[in-house]
Amino acid sequence: MERFKNLLLYREMVASLVRRELKGRYKGSVLGFLWTFVNPLLQMLVYTLVFSVIMKSGVDHYYIFLFVALIPWIFCSTCVSGGSDCVLCSKDMVKKIYFPREVLPVSFVTAAFINMLLSYLVVFAVILISGFGIRWSVLPYLLPVMLVEYFLALGLCFLVSALTVYFRDLFYFLGILTMLWQFLTPVMFSQERVVEALSSRSAVLLRLWYMNPMTPVINCFRDVMYYKRIPDLTMLSSAIGFGIFFLVVGWLVFGKLQRGFAEVM
User: Fold this and answer.
1) Which of 134, 119, 114 is nearest to 37 (CA)?
2) pTM, two decimal places
């Protein structure tokens, strides 16, 4: 409780670091902040080319099917792989200034979350321009799904950023792990296709599939934005459960390991 109160007292520092992160992300580039919108668009075009033309997926409006899941995936993977060294990158601050160390992962994840919200403006634009349409009555359900993913990503960032201080190679390993993780998450293909393929082959693999914390999150995003329906209650409950679990674990691990940050650095 004491740590949480301290974090609230330093909320202005969090806001300042978020602004610095957003301004400095594309500093010096020609397009600058426009990369926030260009980057997901380019990824969507590449994946759409592969899975709609070269390796046909058979999914109607595949570019929308992909886009509504790709943006939240980019957010989560950024928080895990990119956020893993957010404490190390601020080692001078950690050594010289007193402040709650939780400020660093919170500001990193919050900046990435704002970036995801801005990227979703492109998603809305693509959906409306294409004529695919939005069911406005289910759109409010998108907010709790986004918040659940925020807390999930924050918990994971707490965890990996604390561990990376002690195990520097973890930063490089996570880059490979998130690449593998994407193919184990229903970003480029549907949940039904995976279940159909695994249910008749391996019950163990199917159980492992459901243990992926991003599986229910992606499915909930897709329910609202692609299938235009209220998120499946089982999936939403599972996403909430994963979010709470990793937030608590990440918070506890970070709290224990942060005591030795200055000495290790």
Assistant:
1) 119
2) 0.90
